[in-house]
Amino acid sequence: MYKKLKLTRRSVVSAAVVAILAAQMGTLSSAYAQSTQPKLAQPDISLSASHDPWGPLKHVHAGVLDVAYAEMGPANGPVVILLHGWPYDIHSYQDVAPALAAKGYRVLVPYARGYGETRFLSNSTMRNAEPAALAVDAIDFMDALHIKRAVFGGFDWGARSADIVAALWPERVKALVSVSGYLIGSQESGRTPLPPKAEYQWWYQYYFATQRGYIGYEKNHHDFAKLIWQLASPKWNFDDTIYERSARALDNPDHVAITIHNYRWRLGLVNGEAKYDKLEQRLAQAPKISVPTITLEGDANGAPHPQPEAYAKQFIGKYQFRLITGGIGHNLPEEAPQAFTQAVIDADNL
């Protein structure tokens, strides 16, 4: 069940809260603004063996990555791209993807950099995880597959990437479904102290800021990620089979470096790449999102997240907010797949 709200500008509090409560992200290079036109060459796609319910994963060279991704649905159907978060993987959409495919959508679910079978094409590429880089990965993925426009859905890191693409390249996004709403931020906002209870929720970010945290996550990432799952979704009684299915994706050789860099970047402790600097300035201004959007929140989300009233003014097109009830936590697509699937379909028809 979900509760459906339409928020007007008179019903929201200052959007300035967004910059503090929303997670921070980086920027995209202005060079990419000219590189998002679909290429004429045929995509270089390969298959990898898999015993997973998704079937064989596909691979495509996109930007700096060899992206591993799952695909379901008719090849000529309207495209939906689903982006996962940390520390999760594509299995968050295991029930959503076939449901959308059954409705005629071509569903693409890529592994982010540092997850699953996705690999960097060069050993010399910086293991950069500023959110800008992750968003550019999504654009590169679309370009590599000659996709002009898609419906985007995401949660956690994936929602942030989807938000950025929708804000900076609205012509590439037909509609958006974002768990926890507007997650675009900046390093500057990351330097702003939060109230004590809010700071407490970000304990792992401060742990990762230390060398002890780097070594600890490198040594214990399997159990660490499981703890995050439990804290972020306190009422979700997932079993070991469900967890282990996703935890394998965290064995990617770049996963630890990607995770640590992302959270250190948010606090301004490390730099990203200069090619993103110009668009970082734009993103730091909290650009509005104009594409049709449905934002979702679980009623038992234990992870840090902004309140819907704080970010509603950031969505200036057709917009709905839905509270998903029944003890739903942070991994909303896996915990409430029917609600997420319906939101994608409804957003596409707003």
Automatic annotation (TrEMBL):
GO MF terms on file?
hydrolase activity
* Keywords, sorted A to Z: Hydrolase, Signal
Name all AB hydrolase-1 domain ranges.
Answer: 78-209
Q: What is this protein called?
A: Alpha/beta hydrolase
Under InterPro entries, the record lists: AB_hydrolase_1, AB_hydrolase_fold, AB_hydrolase_sf, Epox_hydrolase-like, TAT_signal
Q: What single Pfam family name could you report for this chain, choosing any that match?
A: Abhydrolase_1
Q: Which organism is it from?
A: Dyella lipolytica
* Highest taxon of source: Bacteria
- The question of whether RNA-binding is a record keyword is answered with no
Transmembrane region positions? none
From which residue to which does the signal peptide run?
Answer: 1-33
